[in-house]
């Protein structure tokens, strides 16, 4: 883009030099034409005077020839001289008409030269404007100001300086201020049969090994009504089978670690167990008897 702008600037300078050179050449030719016309006019005036004198001489000699004072040969020579002068006048008038035509052509070229120069400059200005518009569009594509619809905290920042971004690719996530994080579980269809809202969950965060930082509680708040196929998901973990989406409310938004509280971050991976039912120890002990009674 910069090189094209430089070429346009060089073209402007070339046009200015070309205009000045052409104008000087045309003015010089015009000056020479005017000199030729002036000289030719003087020649024409002298030749016309000579022709008038020759006409007068011919009239006198004709009268003398009629009276026999001079021979017919002398008269014929004067007649030939008169014809030669007439021919010279005709040639000079023809040459003068050609010079006048050339002069008119030069005048027209000089008059059109500024207009043609301005037209060429206008084309360059149009090209310059087009390049500037392209540059603005490129700058607009390189930089785009996005305003968040809500106040909050940026999470899952994917964009980095110099990194190529694909179309439809999420660049970041904004967690609105005051919004509580929730866990999203992807439950295989084979294990989804008895999952329903209100069930308790036990969560293990990969960033905080449960052997050291413990297991955290949550509650199922929403279950998906349609299955999600692996090719429909954009997740950081591979999914090999159809799943249902299950939302879980967290009892705590932070992890107790080394005597301080560490806030949970959006995008953290976790695994979970959903408590489908609770039984007392007695019911577990009596279950074989109940099963035997059912078969009797």
Automatic annotation (TrEMBL):
Transferase is among the record's keywords: no
Subcellular location: Membrane
Gene Ontology biological-process annotations: protein secretion
Keyword tags: Membrane, Transmembrane, Transmembrane helix, Transport
A Pfam short name: Beta-barrel_AprE
Principal place of residence: membrane
Bilayer topology annotation: Single-pass membrane protein
GO CC entries: membrane
Domain AprE-like beta-barrel: 186-275
Family the UniProt entry places it in: Belongs to the membrane fusion protein (MFP) (TC 8.A.1) family.
Name this polypeptide is given: HlyD family secretion protein
Organism name: Alishewanella aestuarii B11
């Amino acid at each position: 883009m910069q090189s094209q702008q430089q070429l346009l600037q060089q073209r402007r300078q070339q046009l200015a030099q070309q205009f000045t050179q052409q104008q000087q050449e045309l003015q010089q030719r015009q000056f020479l034409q005017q000199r030729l016309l002036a000289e030719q006019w003087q020649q024409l005036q002298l030749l016309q005077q000579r022709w008038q004198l020759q006409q007068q001489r011919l009239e006198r000699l004709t009268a003398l020839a009629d009276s026999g004072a001079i021979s017919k040969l002398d008269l014929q020579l004067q007649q030939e001289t008169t014809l030669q002068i007439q021919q010279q006048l005709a040639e000079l008038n023809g040459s003068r008409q050609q010079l006048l035509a050339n002069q008119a052509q030069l005048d027209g070229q000089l008059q059109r030269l500024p207009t043609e120069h301005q037209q060429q400059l206008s084309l360059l200005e149009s090209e310059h404007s087009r390049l500037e518009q392209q540059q603005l569009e490129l700058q607009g594509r390189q930089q785009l100001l996005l305003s968040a619809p809500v106040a909050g905290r940026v999470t899952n920042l994917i964009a980095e300086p110099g990194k190529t971004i694909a179309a439809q690719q999420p660049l970041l996530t904004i967690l609105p201020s005051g919004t509580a994080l929730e866990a999203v579980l992807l439950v295989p269809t084979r294990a989804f049969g008895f999952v329903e809202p209100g069930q308790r969950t036990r969560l293990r965060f990969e960033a905080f090994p449960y052997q050291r930082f413990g297991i955290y509680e949550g509650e199922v708040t929403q279950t998906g009504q349609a299955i999600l196929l692996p090719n429909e998901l954009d997740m950081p973990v591979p999914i090999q089978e159809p799943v249902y989406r299950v939302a879980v409310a967290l009892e705590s938004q932070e992890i107790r670690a080394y005597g301080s509280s560490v806030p949970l971050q959006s995008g953290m991976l976790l695994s979970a167990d959903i408590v489908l039912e609770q039984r007392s120890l007695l019911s577990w002990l009596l279950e074989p008897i109940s099963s035997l009674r059912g078969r009797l």
